[in-house]
Amino acid sequence: MSVKIKTAHEIELMREAGRILALVHENLAKEIKPGMSTLDIDRLGEEMIRSYGCIPSFKNYCGYPASICVSVNEEVVHGIPNANRILQEGDIVSLDAGVIYKGYHSDAARTVGVGEISEEAKLLIERTRMSFFEGMKKATAGNHLFDISNNIAAYAEKFGYGVVRDLVGHGIGSQLHEEPEIPNFRKRTRGLKLRAGMTLAVEPMINMGTHEVLWLDDEWTVVSEDLSLSAHYENTILITDGKPELLTLTESEKAAGALELF
Ligand code: MF3
Ligand code: CO
After folding, report:
1. Which of 82, 162, 216, 218 has the highest local Cβ count within 10 Å?
2. Each residue of 6-29: pLDDT tens digit?
3. Under CATH, to which class is 8-256 assigned?
4. What is the pTM of this model?
5. pLDDT tens digits for 225-240?
6. Atom of ligand 1 nearest to the CA of 61
7. Is 6 in the pocket of ligand 1 (CB under 6 A)?
8. Nearest ligand, CA of residue 59?
């Protein structure tokens, strides 16, 4: 097992990949409206990624046919954009995207509401986001990987939510998926020791009901088994000797105080 420690140059490239992906998320979230199709979102997102001189890393990854994973309501991740899937007021939609800048990857996801959404949906989205930041409290060199996992799970489970176990976060760098795997659920061991220069994609996927998931016949779309709402929040981060650097945080999140949450 080998987790790569990135060089200063690699980190510079990943910062830029992250900055661009944050801009894509910021701009894409503003476009989400009732009446648009999930394919419209993919088209817009791919155009934005390419306009910044980046490559959408998901496109054709293991045969995935689009640039943005668009997952609506009970869909957890890897929803396939479709011209016939029209967003309705009250839906929640998870947008997961990755870009490659000069050979280096960033990966991030946000769940957003379509028009007005229910109070319980708002809470699920907010608490999924907060579970990530609870994880960040442990994401420092010298701590262990599963300290992050345990903090995420402990926070989300307080609300009776189901923390998805069948999909995990991952190392990231010159490859979209590198070692290590990063569970969002509780582990009995502490896992590997975190070191400055590790770059990780931490991505809690939280269901309102059961943690169990199913794969649809398209072989990509993952849904909650009980069809309860699901939210996803992901950033690419850099481990340092102090607080982690969140490479894909948007400017509006920073302005709203996200850096003080961990
Ligand atoms: N963000 C996803 C992940 O972290 C990547 C989607 S896989 C793809 O694993 F095939 F859809 F690209
Ligand atoms: Co990821």
Report:
1. 162
2. 999 999 999 999 999 999 999 999
3. alpha beta
4. 0.98
5. 999 999 999 999 999 9
6. 10
7. no
8. 1
